[in-house]
Give the backbone structure.
Amino acid sequence: MSTAPQAVDVASARPRIRPLRWVAGAALLVLAAQFAWFLVTNPRFEWPVAGKYLFDPNILRGLGMSLLLTVIGMTLGSVLGVLLAAGRLSDFKPVSWACGLYVALFRGIPPLVQLIFWFNLGYLLPRISLGVPFGPTFVSWPTNSVISSLTAAVIGLTLHEAAYMAEIVRAGILGVDGGQRDAARAMGFTARQSFVKVVLPQAMRVIVPPTGSQFISLLKGTSLVSVIAMADLLYSVQVIYNRTYEIVPLLIVACAWYLAVVTVLSLGQRRLEQHFGKGQR
């Protein structure tokens, strides 16, 4: 005669010992301690020098320029990206193909190459003119007087960012089920009301996370403008260490400011994700 197995009280059950986790945790702890010891005891980091230049006026002006380029590039890139996304979703094939070609072109060319190209635009186009195509010219300017370091940086970052934002916006809109639009139209909403009140709020849950990541990537990408003598954070650091030869501590200053700003932006991105993700797990 068989006996029924005894019931096990799950609440009193002991967690299973996982020795590999203990080994991995101990290894990580040892590596962290070794890295901290390396940072503290290596005199070549020159921490006092890094502290001296952390709030240097030139460094802060460079940081401000990096933030300004990020905001301008992201704002203009987002506006252009929305237009490109609308073009790619258009039923008019020539517009859709042209927008698709733009996205493929500016996503495929590295941003550093684009910045150098726009900075040297005067070699291909000595003068920038306004007038009738293949007709008379109304006004013109020397290209080198128009395309400065700032102008080249804004153009390069904006056009590059617009290509990525176009795909982000397009993916967000396509991520909303088509039945949502049909239901909104059945309730008497116009096409504009359907998009603003039904499609866009749902698409924002898909759009916001990668947009925040793009903003952070653009902030770090502004360091590329130093190659065209734009006085951003990295360029300001380079100017100082080229004079003092204190390369490592000045690079630590740049890393500290990039990490600080990115941390703040990441917190803001998390709040936005929570706001637009209400009701979703």
About this structure: The first strand starts at residue 127 and ends at 131. The CA atoms of residues 60 and 264 lie 17 Å apart. Strands lie at 127-131, 137-142.
